[in-house]
Amino acid sequence: MFTDEVLDSVSVQSLWRKSQQAAQESKGCQTRAVHSAEAVVQTVCKTISSTQTEPQDQETEQLLLLLQNRDEPEPPGPRGFLQRVEDMVIRELVNNAKSHAFDGLLVNWENYSQQVSCLHCLQHPRAQEKGFHVTSVSWSCTGSVIACAYGRIDDGDWSTERSYVCTWNLNRRGLHSKQADLVIDVSAAVTALCCHPKQPALIAGGLYSGEVVVWDTSRTHDPILAQTGMSADSHREPVYKVAWVPLQKKGEFGVLSASSGGRVLLWMVDSDQGRFVLNAAYAIVRQQVPHSSSASLKACGRSTVGVTSLALSPWDADTFLVGSEGGLLLRCSFSSQTPAAVPSEGQSVMLRAPAVFSFRPHSGPIHSIHCSPFHRNLFVSAGTDGQVHLHSLLQPNPLVSLRISNSYVFQVQWSPTRPLVFAAANGQGEVQIFDLGRRSPRAAATIGQGDAGQAATCFDFNCQNPHLVAVGKTDGTVGIWQLSTDLTEQSSRENSQLEQIANQVAE
Amino acid sequence: MAEVEETLKRIQGQKGVQGIIIVNSEGIPVKTTLDNSSTVQYAGLIHQLVMKARSTVRDIDPQNDLTFLRVRSKKNEIMIAPDKDYFLIVIQNPSD
């Protein structure tokens, strides 16, 4: 049915290819011959001439400069102006330097008061009944509220007495000296107090039990904002000093606490959870204290160095000063990375050894250190040996040593307005004010009567109203004193005198 | 340019001079021997003071005008030489 079929191929002839190939032709052309000729030229006579630019005058030169360089905008104006006024100004300067017209002229813008007087005597009857001493006073950052902490300074034993923190607002009309505006009940004796430098309602306190607490006085029902509680991180010994420290982030503050267990801890406040978070921990151990050439360390049973006082430097955010129970005075650094030679007790943060430099030791516990707000290298320290030493941060030996009392010195502080003035509270119930500009080593003024039974344990200058001082005593009273004007007004030479004292070299 | 510097050096060399500022008529400092923040502070405050002093003098007598202003304080003295386009402020401590 199906068979293979073979067909012949079919071809189609191309029409266009043939026609192109069919029509080819070739053509050629040639140019005509080119005519050329030669000719020669030579110069007959020569002359020489030259040109030179004239020096330009100043005005046009400056205008040209102005137009050319936009980044040199010195207008020709001040020159002319200075030419006009220079002679007159120099004449006036010379006359002023020679003139005696204003010698001895004293202008009083404010009321001049000659005396030191007591404005208020604040007491808390319940604390006085129990025989509490005032352990710490602190002015709030606004300068109108004074906060006082009650406790005992002569305690050796562990005690579980409850105590108080009281605040009075001095600018309120209904100020009642026997009734505090706010009384906070505290579970243990309060040994340290510090008001927040920016927020007037916050107060940080250190307790005898080793706890650190921050109270918020704007809260009515429960003023405790945060407390450390008894954790592995917290202190085991009484906290003798708390201070607010500015942290890296601007506007935030942490609490630095120092206790006689040899620990200095930096806490951050976690107000949502009502607790503290340990940010950095420092432990001071005798073996890691740098030896200065004149110090002789006696062998001591305990290796920890109990910290009794602390001071922050307002000039250098990395430095803080520490004073100990044995009289050691150390300069420490926040950024030190050396691990401390203490067995770790399960802290959340590694303990570091902060001591960088050691000054000449006192012969007794150091109760108070304060850095000068007017000179970056100066600070004063005072302790139970009755002496106040003025140190420079750069030298181990003190620059000036003043014996101011036969009893203990509990606190020493620089005046916030006069660079050469500092005050010291002694065990005889007085706060003495010393002026380094005077020749005599005696006090320039004394607050309080000398009373051997009562010691003045603490005081604080009011930075907003520099003529007010609050003094706390062992009889449980806080006195608010007003200073005379010559103790609070700066004179023109004081800074340079302070500079001279600082540049002395101690023997 | 060099003349301005020389004049300023001559004034700075007088006894007790602590600083010199040249401020233009809008209160912007043009030349100064003090640090930046103090210069800006002085220029702003003293410009307002000079305007006030000048208007005081001219209100009292319209034919009169301010030629020199001196402000003496406890710690130093500020001398101001005003002009149409610029002010020269010199701070001197005469007891230095």
From TrEMBL, chain B:
Tell me where it mainly resides: cytoplasm
What are the annotated GO cellular component locations? cytoplasm; cytoplasmic dynein complex; microtubule
Q: Which InterPro entries match?
A: DYNLRB1/2, Roadblock/LAMTOR2_dom
List, in alphabetical order, the Gene Ontology terms for molecular function in this entry. Answer: dynein intermediate chain binding
What keywords are annotated for this sequence in UniProt? Cytoplasm, Cytoskeleton, Dynein, Microtubule, Motor protein, Transport
Q: Which SUPFAM superfamilies match?
A: Roadblock/LC7 domain (SSF103196)
List each copy of the Roadblock/LAMTOR2 domain by range.
Answer: 4-92
Q: Do you know which SMART domains this protein is assigned to?
A: Robl_LC7
Keyword Protein biosynthesis in record: no
UniProt record, GO biological process: microtubule-based movement; transforming growth factor beta receptor signaling pathway
Q: Where in the cell is it found?
A: Cytoplasm, Cytoskeleton
Q: Which family does it belong to?
A: Belongs to the GAMAD family.
Q: Function of this protein?
A: Acts as one of several non-catalytic accessory components of the cytoplasmic dynein 1 complex that are thought to be involved in linking dynein to cargos and to adapter proteins that regulate dynein function. Cytoplasmic dynein 1 acts as a motor for the intracellular retrograde motility of vesicles and organelles along microtubules.
Q: What is this protein called?
A: Dynein light chain roadblock
